[in-house]
């Protein structure tokens, strides 16, 4: 295939995401009478989280994943872990070089390390298979495999986000809250000789205001990984707490992710796909309970349009004013969308040359694209959860996702050429 044909195949899924996201953004404005208001987005998030996404994952896994497939996919958990580890190191280096305000430090590291392993792969990867001239074989087989790879990626990404990324943002947020409390105590001391502006400078950048944490509420995230009760994550102003307390908290969030509906659907789909007699009960023209699989597929079809609309609606929050410096935004974009994918490409190609990966080129495509995804939308959920850097997080997500339109198209085109 020529360059123009490959570019067309790669660009169409990204353009689809862009168009539907733009519609979601418009639906969140007064032009559509706030049809996707914040409350409606939270409610729709819960429906997608509890119903649509599990249905899509289970129906896909039960139909197309066998025990041999599961064994051959052993490298994907390692690959997802490497994206978080390498991205975290790059983010830490950026923090040391840029020396941003403490309120933004955790966001920078999280944005560099935590890619969108949820809704974007489920939208983009299967759409590649539907394009004429796709190098990944038969459309039906490619589409089923793509959904399985993307669903597995979603489950793995959620586990890493709610352990590694959660602790990254929480630790910086606790330090910021501690400084905030210390400054408040100093302000209360009478006749204290100090520079109030200097104290305030420790807590905010330019015009970025510090807000009082809201009361407990549920936050629905766009990637539909987990619904968090803020009452269970109150931040202590006395420090980081004991090591045991932190370990228990990490384990509790890890178990919560394992018990989330998408994760349960993943494990259940694996079981039905691996055990032949269970698969034959619901999959196939002669299956006695095939109506269950058909119903789940029908529900799963609502996942992609809903999460793409929600993605656009949530990104509108990034139009608010913020003190994030342009250099910080440019650095995050380069690290997340260009530097990290280059490193990931070398890792995946090395693994393929050593015979560690399945023969399917689509699997290699998915592994490399995991490095090229923009930051996880769950970062916004965590910023709201700890009430630190909400506006800054929205701005970072807005600009990185805007740049991802070009970056994803470029990387997808290059990978199609490389793997075809």
TrEMBL record:
One of its GO terms (cellular component) is endoplasmic reticulum membrane. Its main location: endoplasmic reticulum. One of its GO terms (biological process) is auxin-activated signaling pathway. InterPro entries: Mem_transp_PIN-like, PILS1/3/4/5/7. The chain crosses the membrane at residues 12-32, 44-62, 74-95, 107-128, 148-166, 254-278, 298-315, 327-350, 395-419. It is found in: Endoplasmic reticulum membrane. It is a multi-pass membrane protein. Pfam families: Mem_trans. Keywords: Auxin signaling pathway, Endoplasmic reticulum, Membrane, Transmembrane, Transmembrane helix, Transport. Involved in cellular auxin homeostasis by regulating auxin metabolism. Regulates intracellular auxin accumulation at the endoplasmic reticulum and thus auxin availability for nuclear auxin signaling. Belongs to the auxin efflux carrier (TC 2.A.69.2) family. This is Auxin efflux carrier family protein.
């Amino acid at each position: 295939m020529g360059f123009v044909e490959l570019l067309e195949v790669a660009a169409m899924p990204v353009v689809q995401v862009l168009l539907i996201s733009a519609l979601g953004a418009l639906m969140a404005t007064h032009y559509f009478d706030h049809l996707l208001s914040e409350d409606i987005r939270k409610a729709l998030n819960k429906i997608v989280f509890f119903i649509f996404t599990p249905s899509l994952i289970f129906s896909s896994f039960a139909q197309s994943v066998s025990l041999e497939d599961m064994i051959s996919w052993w490298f994907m958990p390692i690959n997802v872990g490497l994206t978080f580890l390498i991205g975290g190191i790059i983010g830490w280096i950026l923090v040391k070089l840029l020396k941003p305000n403490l309120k933004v430090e955790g966001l920078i590291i999280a944005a560099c390390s935590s890619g969108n392993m949820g809704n974007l792969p489920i939208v983009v990867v299967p759409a590649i298979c539907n394009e004429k001239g796709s190098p990944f074989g038969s459309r039906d087989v490619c589409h089923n495999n793509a959904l399985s790879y993307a669903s597995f990626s979603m489950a793995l990404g959620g586990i890493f986000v709610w352990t590694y990324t959660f602790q990254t943002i929480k630790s910086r947020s606790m330090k910021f809250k501690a400084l905030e409390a210390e400054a408040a105590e100093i302000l209360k001391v009478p006749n204290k000789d100090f520079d109030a502006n200097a104290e305030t400078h420790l807590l905010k950048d330019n015009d970025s205001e510090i807000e009082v944490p809201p009361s407990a509420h549920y936050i629905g995230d766009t990637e539909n990984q987990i619904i968090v009760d803020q009452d269970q994550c109150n931040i202590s102003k006395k420090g980081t707490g004991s090591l045991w307390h932190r370990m228990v908290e990490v384990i509790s969030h890890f178990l919560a992710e394992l018990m989330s509906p998408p994760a349960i659907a993943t494990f259940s789909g694996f079981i039905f796909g691996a055990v032949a007699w269970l698969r034959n009960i619901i999959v196939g023209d002669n299956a006695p309970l095939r109506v269950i699989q058909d119903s789940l597929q029908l529900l799963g079809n609502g996942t992609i349009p809903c999460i793409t609309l929600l993605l656009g609606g949530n990104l509108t929050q990034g139009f608010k004013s913020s003190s994030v410096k342009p250099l910080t935004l440019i650095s995050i974009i380069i690290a997340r969308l260009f530097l990290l994918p280059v490193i990931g490409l070398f890792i995946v190609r090395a693994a393929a040359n050593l015979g560690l990966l399945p023969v399917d080129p689509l699997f290699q495509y998915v592994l490399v694209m995991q490095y090229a995804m923009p930051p996880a939308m769950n970062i916004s959920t965590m910023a709201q959860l700890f009430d630190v850097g909400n506006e800054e997080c929205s701005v970072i997500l807005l600009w990185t996702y805007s740049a991802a339109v070009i970056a994803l198209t470029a990387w997808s085109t290059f990978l199609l050429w490389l793997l075809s």
